[in-house]
Design brief:
Shape: elongated
Bound molecules: zinc ion
Structural class: mainly alpha
Number of strands: 5
Order of helices and strands: HHHHHEEHHEEEHHHHH
Strand order of the largest sheet: 3-5-4
Amino acid sequence: MLKTTSFASAIKSCNSLRTFPIRTLSYHPAYRPFSLHLSTPLRNTNKSARISTVNYRNFHTTSPRNVPIIPIPAAILALLKSGKLVSFVSLSSKTSLTLLPHSIFRRYKFSTKVFASVPLIGIALLLTVGLDQAPNTDRLRLVYLSEEEEMEVVTLEVDQLLGSQSGLIAPKENEYVQWLQNIADNIARVSVDDIRDPVREYDPQDPKIKSYDVNIICDSSTLNAMCAGNKILVYDLMISYLGFDTDMMAVIMSHEIAHSIQRHFVETHGIASFMLMLGDISRGLLWTVTESLGPYVNQKLNEWISGFITMETETTYNRGLEKEADLVGLMLMAKAGYDPRTALTVWAKVRLFCRLYIY
Ligand SMILES: [Zn+2]
């Protein structure tokens, strides 16, 4: 209750946002479609080739997203691209590696070949099925959850979070919720295209436009924002700390929407599953050698492997995803008409907050 009241008083103190800034079909002059240095060439610089590319893109109806790198029939891919595949490969590999030493010891040639092959075939299958190309940047990655599985997991997590914060969620008619909703709608509208495409006139009724549901959580102890599925959650401290500034909030919203359209949630799940499976296989292989060294050495070895996987997935890999969300978010906000240069101020302010209150 106290927290809600503090947000209400913060809202009252801000008089500059009595009318909502409606921006449509514009783009900021700072927008340079080809100025960001992504890892792949963005466009053929040959003039005639450029014209033919633009004409071609005008006629195709869907963006080339989530296309398997290795040509696999869609029906087979739909069956295989599932979290269950990772579980199946992991279980069968662990079982084979457990049985392998006994098979070698008893000199069963055929079963030795089978047990040794299962993990290798499993890894090859996972790499083939999971290999995917990220939209907007063409970065190669591993994705195992189907879109239905992703929606199921995300909906469950968001519902749990919103349920735990139910007394702190600002009502939909709140003018700041509508203000942020308007920013999200503007950014979502331009996200139907590849970020490297030039800005154009967007039809608000285009069925390809994904709608986002913005929620403000009135918890002045947390500086955070997140996007899961089609839900965007923004803590009120973020809004007041950034001075109720439209361009600054567009930086936050576009970064979060970029995470969503890049499907970073499933990517994190994919790399974690794959690394855990490799960890299990490594343990199985090492066990044949380290079994005689005793439980202490094996326990330390297990801890080292687990720590390495956690570090790679939760820090190193995640930093790459954050960087991609920053790049894609900057392009999105510029195409939607907001000033991407504001991002420098926003991230400096967030870093200052972290130094003062978190680290
Ligand atoms: Zn992020």
